[in-house]
Design goal:
Helices cover 75% and strands 0% of the residues. The chain is mostly helical. It has one domain.
Length: 167
Amino acid sequence: MLKQAEIERQRIETLASAERQRLITEAEGRASAIRAQGEAEAEIIFKKGEAEAKAMNVKAEAFQEYNQAAVLDKLITGLPEVVRALSEPLSKVDKVTIVSTGNGDAAGAYKLTGDITKIAAQVPALFEALSGMQMSELLGKVRLIGDKAPKTELPQAPIKKVYGGWP
């Protein structure tokens, strides 16, 4: 009976050892698969980040290239609003009485329109004070920026030849 118990013990140890080895191999296989999946996901994240960084660099270069054009566009398109705000007090005037003494460069209505012109002429100086840029310098760059812009040709309709009257 002792020999039978010894054989049974060895059989159980062998089965336990085999089960232990199977579990270790299975765990290593799962770990390897998880590691491979994690590495693949990390690679995807890295590639996506790299692509986004490249796209941002392209955008940054484009913004740098067209930055002055964008600033110019924003400021110039806002100028009518500035002029409107400057002239708004005049729009609330109901009646103007002009008294001319004959002194000075201008008299009468000419003096009034001259003053309005002087107010409007201050807009470029206001623009330069607000933006910190010379308006004449920015306007000079518009041509350079336009020359760098991609050119597209408009599609042309096919020309239909008509001989001798209606087709």
